[in-house]
């Protein structure tokens, strides 16, 4: 096992998930229920399952597409997201409240 890759993956996911909505939901659920341990195991299980499915899907896609194409698809996807955020984020969303 590549321990460096394991540690890097753990730190990256840990830091990116610190302010995640699922963590806030787990905090809210554990504060209201009688069994915070059940909330912990439920949320941990859900995170493990989604991570497993993501790793399996990523491995399957990597079997069919070369790394260069995957990187190009990711770069184009991030560029589209960045352009949408920079150029079209000023429009009023239908969920926002408008003041007269």
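-> sequence recovered:
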């Amino acid at each position: 096992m590549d321990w460096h890759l394991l540690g890097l993956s753990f730190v990256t996911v840990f830091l990116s998930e610190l302010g995640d909505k699922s963590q806030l939901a787990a905090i809210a659920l554990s504060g209201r229920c009688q069994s915070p341990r059940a909330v912990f195991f439920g949320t941990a299980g859900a995170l493990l399952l989604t991570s497993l499915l993501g790793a399996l899907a990523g491995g399957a896609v990597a079997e069919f597409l070369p790394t260069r194409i995957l990187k190009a698809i990711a770069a184009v996807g991030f560029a589209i997201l960045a352009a949408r955020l920079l150029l079209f984020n000023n429009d009023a969303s239908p969920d926002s409240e408008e003041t007269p």
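Residues 3-88 form one domain.
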